[in-house]
């Protein structure tokens, strides 16, 4: 029966649709108001999940919530505040009457300055959101799943910056490297509770926030160093996200999945 639930029919034929289906699941996406977060929410919703859109400003989520319709709820969430994280999960569970069994740690920031000019505040702000925030969200989400005896999938949006060096973003690369390591730690500790934890590491993906940079000469030079000679689009991450969220990735945990062209 477990096999059937995971998308394998009794005869051994693969039921592709149920393998990737997220029907009955509840997905919380942090930083969902724009960029990749909004895209991730659309993908998970398209696969059948109920979606909890989380962001600091709830008014910024109204348009996306309206677009997604009935299977979407919004919660205010600053990932750096432990109490706000707990309240967001309480509100999410109240909205759909079930724990969030897909958690996408998407909220992230960067401060771009040479390391000699980075201040203590620059460093702290990046580490606070990208590493401490992801820990707070993952740990609170996992606690609630364990209490409800519900399996789940936590997807940490890291970056190729967590695996190599990108100039001018010391806090960013350090935080994303920390997030990759945190992913493995959580995966090992939470496996016994049937909670999978994986890191998705995008390369350069075009979003409103970086469009101007990639149109510039410096940005074009970066693109020329990508072997595929193009920027990724948010849609290039959809398959990897679905794999990690769904039964298709049932035996994947602690993985670092790179999507970087
Ligand atoms: P973005 O700036 O459009 O999105 C980041 C989101 O996080 C924003 O909605 C922002 O409001 C939110 N956020 C920031 N601080 C927050 C906080 N304290 N609490 C709650 N939300 C907060 O950028 P994006 O390109 O969509 O990036 C999304 C994620 O993907 C980030 O973690 C980023 O590091 C990662 N990523 C992006 C790329 C890329 O090329 N775009 C590549 C690799 C990794």
Topology:
Blueprint: H1 2-5, H2 16-20, E1 26-30, H3 35-46, E2 50-55, H4 62-68, E3 72-76, H5 82-96, E4 102-105, H6 120-147, E5 152-157, H7 170-190, E6 195-202, H8 211-215, H9 217-224, H10 238-245, E7 256-259
Parallel strand pairs: 1-2, 1-4, 2-3, 4-5, 5-6, 6-7
Helix pairs in contact: 3-10, 5-6, 6-7
Bound molecules: nicotinamide-adenine-dinucleotide (NAD).
The site of nicotinamide-adenine-dinucleotide has 27 residues, from helix 3 and helix 6.
Describe this structure in words.
This protein has helices at 2-5, 16-20, 35-46, 62-68, 82-96, 120-147, 170-190, 211-215, 217-224, 238-245; strands at residues 26-30, 50-55, 72-76, 102-105, 152-157, 195-202, 256-259. The longest helix has 28 residues, at 120-147. The protein is globular and about 50 Å long. It has a seven-stranded parallel sheet with strand order 3-2-1-4-5-6-7, sandwiched between helices. The N and C termini lie far apart (38 Å). Helices cover 43% and strands 15% of the residues. By secondary structure, the chain is α/β, with parallel strands linked by helices.
Separation of termini?
A: 38 Å
Order of adjacent strands in the largest pleated sheet? 3-2-1-4-5-6-7
> Tell me about the biggest sheet?
7 strands, parallel
Helix segment count?
10
Question: Which small molecules are bound?
Answer: nicotinamide-adenine-dinucleotide
Count every beta strand, where a strand is a DSSP E run of 2 or more residues.
7
Shape: globular
Secondary-structure-derived class: alpha/beta
Q: How large is the radius of gyration?
A: 18 Å
Strand content: 5-15%
Averaging pLDDT over every residue, what do you get? Answer: 95
Element-by-element helix/strand order: HHEHEHEHEHEHEHHHE
The poorly predicted ranges are none
Q: Helical content, roughly?
A: 40-55%
């Amino acid at each position: 029966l477990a096999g059937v639930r995971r998308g394998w029919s009794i005869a051994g034929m693969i039921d592709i649709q149920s393998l990737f289906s997220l029907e009955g699941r509840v997905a919380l996406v942090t930083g969902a108001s724009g960029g990749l977060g909004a895209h991730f929410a659309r993908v998970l919703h398209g696969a059948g999940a109920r979606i909890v859109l989380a962001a600091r400003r709830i008014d910024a989520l109204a348009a996306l919530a309206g677009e997604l319709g009935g299977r979407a709820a919004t919660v205010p969430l600053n990932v750096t505040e432990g109490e706000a994280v707990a309240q967001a999960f309480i509100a999410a569970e109240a909205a759909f009457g079930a724990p969030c069994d897909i958690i996408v740690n998407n909220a992230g920031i960067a401060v771009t300055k040479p390391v000699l000019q980075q201040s203590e505040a620059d460093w702290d702000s990046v580490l606070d959101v990208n590493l401490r925030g992801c820990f707070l969200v993952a740990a609170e989400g996992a606690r609630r799943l364990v209490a409800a005896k519900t399996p789940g999938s936590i997807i940490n949006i890291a970056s190729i910056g967590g695996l190599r060096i990108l100039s001018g973003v010391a806090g960013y690369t350090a935080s994303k490297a920390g997030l990759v390591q945190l992913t493995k730690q959580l995966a090992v500790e939470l496996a016994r509770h049937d909670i999978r934890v994986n890191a998705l590491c995008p390369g350069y993906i075009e979003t409103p926030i970086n469009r101007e940079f990639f149109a510039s000469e410096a940005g074009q030079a970066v693109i020329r160093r990508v072997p595929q000679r193009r920027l990724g689009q948010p849609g290039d991450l959809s398959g990897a996200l679905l794999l990690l969220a769904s039964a298709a990735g049932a035996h994947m945990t602690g993985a670092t999945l790179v999507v970087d062209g």
